[in-house]
Design brief:
By secondary structure, this protein is mostly helical. It has one domain. It is 88% helix and 0% strand.
């Protein structure tokens, strides 16, 4: 497996673990009566994080400004910040 693919998957999973509980509690407070809707919305938001991590790392690698490790850290910070804004 290529290093870029490993970084995309790793950063996506780290962002999910960093923000998953916040997504779950936010959607649960909005839709208390429908548990399946809460699970579905949380899953969709977490899938969006994985896709965003892949896109952001690919764009940063294409621009070739930093190395892969720095791009991964920048992507993780961006995703967690974006997720925190969504949870508010």
């Amino acid at each position: 497996m290529r290093d870029l693919t490993k970084a995309q998957i790793t950063i996506g999973l780290l962002a999910i673990f960093a923000t998953g509980w916040g997504f779950f509690t936010r959607t649960h407070s909005l839709y208390q009566n429908d548990f399946f809707l809460v699970i579905g919305l949380t899953a969709l938001q977490l899938i969006a994080l994985i896709v965003l991590s892949a896109v952001i790392i690919t764009i940063l690698e294409w621009m070739d400004i930093f190395d892969l490790k720095t791009n991964s850290i920048v992507t993780l910070i961006t995703l967690v910040t974006f997720s925190m804004v969504l949870v508010q």
